[in-house]
Amino acid sequence: MSSGEFRVGLTGASLVVGYGKQWLLQVLSSRPKTLKALQRIRFTGSQIEVRVGREEKLGASNALTLSLDDFN
User: Fold this and answer.
1) What is the SS3 assignment for 23?
2) Which residues are paired to 51 by β-bridges?
3) 23 vs 5, 7, 17, 36, CA distance in Å?
4) Would you say 35 and 21 are in contact if contact means Cβ atoms under 8 Å apart?
5) 8 near 66, Cβ under 8 Å?
6) Which residue, 37, 36, 30, 38, is CA-closest to 13?
7) Facing residues of 52 across strands?
8) Cβ density class 51-65: b for 16+ within 10 Å, e for less
9) What does pTM read for this prediction?
10) Cα–Cα distance for residue pair 38/14, rounded to 1 Å
11) How many angstroms separate the CA atoms of 10 and 2, rounded?
12) What tens digit of pLDDT does each residue of 9-33 get?
């Protein structure tokens, strides 16, 4: 990020912990029991949408990201 903060994409984080690409997105939107279990271990679920790639190039897109604290 321009602030110097490092963040992790939801898709990548889901894959790293051994689940499918959409797992964290599903947890945050429609799996309240799983979300509550994560919140008990200090997971906030706070997301920031960031632009990936340059706007002038084709293929630029937005990605939802988590803080490194949430990822850890």
Assistant:
1) helix
2) 62
3) 24, 18, 10, 15
4) no
5) yes
6) 38
7) 61
8) eeeeeeeeeeeebbb
9) 0.79
10) 13
11) 19
12) 999 999 999 999 999 999 999 999 9
Residue whose tokens read 């271990």: 41
- The secondary element (H helix, E strand) that includes residue 49 is strand 47-52
**What gap in Å lies between CA 67 and CA 72, rounded to an integer?**
9
Residue whose tokens read 């889901």 = 14
Measured CA distances, 2 to 5, 22, 25, 26, 51 (Å): 7, 26, 24, 28, 11
Specify the pLDDT at position 54: 67
Tokens of 66: 């988590």
With vertex at residue 52, the alpha carbon angle to CA 44 and CA 62, rounded to the nearest 5 degrees, is 60
* Amino acid, res. 63: A
